[in-house]
Design goal:
The structure holds 2 protein chains of 2 kinds. Chain A is about 75% helix and about 0% strand. Chain A is mainly α. The interface of A and B includes residues 39 and 191 of A.
């Protein structure tokens, strides 16, 4: 029954090959999935503020930042964003700060020629605007659950069906991401020699993912039909405020007043 | 052959393996049992270096296996060649466009002569009774057929140790009996078998040893298969039957 070669041990010596593409692919996928799946229901104050409130104030602040040309207002917004950053978890704090500094600095380098021609004030204002905007967006995405953010979109008159599509998309990024991580692990475990065409195996995985996502969407469609889904989807948004939410509202009203006063 | 010393693994601040000590000798056939979430799959992932322990030593054939050791690409490949892993979900293991290519994948990488590749693939397809499927796309197959293809693709590389994660899941009774006979034959031919399982009805005669994990992610018993399987009170107490 068992063939002869399977009973004997192979005398196999693999050849040297620099081959990190599987590891790199696994690492980048794990990074994406872990960002979506990270635990955002921590004990710290900034995580417990009403998500709808956070979304609305973040959008308003970003709009006002983009309109304003007042350096003092922008500096105060900067301090406010950095203050929020200090309230975050230690690990997220470092990650957000690095992300929020890289792009403004690149912009600043690109603006150096303009600064030589005397356009210093505008260049610094631009640098500040970019930094604060990225900081505020990163803070929102790190201290608010994705599902809460999408739910809160209802308050800014985004249709329910759009919110639902967004929810499903995020959920399936995680599910398909995890499936592709497993496929890459399987590829890694069976990569025992020289891979003549590295991209061939990756295209196999991509094809597999496409079929998997098609099957999953079809299964979900049938499951929804079985649960009487006829195309209407209503989502309720929770807008009960706590003590800290009121403090948050007061701070933001002050910031908006400052914008009106300074511009 | 495989030695785990004081191994602990934590995932997202949750303990998945707690102070695991195991010594598996060449040619053994070991069942890993325990309730859901007890750490069986984590244990197999750790053996296959998909994950690395936070604490403790993993020794394979007198060599300590850790991230640094596996940075040596040559050793990494040899290690994966010697230790095969059949995933719980076969969908996550099949990525080639035909069954033949899937089984030949590892062999092509080993740069074996074409005639030998063909011979080995054919033997594996015959051994798993899937010769008729060789030109089929793996994603078109049934659950049981996918499992057979996954096992064939691992066997083709002739590993010394075969690890299987819940191989009986989603297979019909005839398929389970077939798999049981196959595992017995492979073990008799000298392969070391390590298998996480829940299915006690169809594993009779495969294993000579059982390692039992508790809900606390610890090994609570490491004994002969007959002794554990006859101890109904113990199995009931630890939520295994």
């Amino acid at each position: 029954m068992i063939p002869e070669w399977l009973i004997e041990k192979d005398n196999y010596v693999p050849k040297e090959e620099k081959n990190l593409y599987i590891e790199k692919s696994i690492f980048s996928l794990i990074k994406i999935v872990s960002i979506i799946r990270q635990n955002k229901s921590k004990d710290k104050l900034v995580y417990s503020i009403n998500p709808t409130l956070k979304l609305i104030t973040t959008i308003l602040n970003i709009v006002f930042i983009s309109i304003s040309r007042n350096f003092i207002y922008l500096s105060i917004l900067d301090i406010y964003a950095l203050g929020n950053l200090l309230l975050m978890e230690k690990t997220s704090r470092k990650r957000i700060l690095i992300k929020s500094l890289v792009f403004p600095f690149i912009t600043l380098i690109a603006l150096i020629p303009s600064m030589f021609y005397g356009n210093i004030y505008n260049s610094l204002v631009l640098f500040q605007k970019i930094m604060t905007t990225i900081l505020l967006m990163n803070l929102l995405s790190h201290n608010t659950k994705w599902s809460e953010i999408s739910k809160s979109l209802k308050l800014i008159f985004i249709p329910d069906i759009f919110i639902w599509i967004m929810d499903i998309t995020i959920k399936y990024i995680v599910l398909l991401g995890e499936h592709s991580i497993n496929l890459l692990y399987a590829l890694k475990l069976r990569s025992v020699g020289i891979t003549s065409n590295k991209y061939n195996s990756l295209t196999g995985i991509m094809g597999n993912m496409f079929i998997k996502s098609y099957k999953m969407s079809e299964e979900m469609y049938h499951a929804m039909e079985c649960r009487c889904f006829v195309g209407e989807y209503t989502k309720k948004v929770d807008f009960t405020l706590k003590k800290y939410d009121y403090i948050y509202i007061i701070i933001n009203i002050l910031l908006i007043s400052l914008f009106i006063y300074s511009n | 052959m495989i030695k785990l010393e004081n191994i602990s693994f934590t995932y997202k601040n949750k303990l998945a393996l707690d102070n695991v000590n195991v010594h598996i000798k060449e040619g053994e056939s070991v069942a890993i049992i325990g309730p859901n979430g007890s750490g069986k799959s984590t244990f197999l992932k750790l053996l296959n270096t998909i994950i690395f322990p936070n604490q403790g030593k993993y020794i394979f054939n007198k060599t300590e296996i850790n991230e640094n050791r596996l940075k040596d690409n040559k050793y990494l490949k040899l290690f994966h060649k010697r230790l095969g892993f059949v995933f719980q979900n076969s969908d996550a293991q099949l990525f080639c466009s035909t069954v033949f290519e899937e089984v030949a994948f590892g062999l092509m990488q080993m740069e074996l002569p074409e005639a030998e590749v063909n011979e080995r693939v054919q033997d594996c397809l015959n051994l798993l009774n899937i010769d008729k499927l060789k030109e089929e796309h793996p994603y078109n197959l049934s659950g049981g057929e996918k499992k057979r293809v996954a096992i064939a693709s691992v066997l083709a590389m002739n590993p010394e140790v075969i690890t299987l994660d819940e191989p009986m899941n989603g297979i019909d009774p005839k398929g389970k009996r077939f798999l049981r006979d196959l595992l017995i034959a492979l073990n008799k031919s000298g392969k070391t078998i390590i298998c996480a399982t829940h299915d006690f009805e169809y594993i009779e005669g495969i294993f000579n040893r059982v390692i039992v994990f508790s809900e606390e992610h610890k090994i609570i018993r490491d004994d002969k298969y007959e002794n554990v399987i006859k101890d109904e009170d113990f199995l009931r107490e630890y939520n295994i039957i």
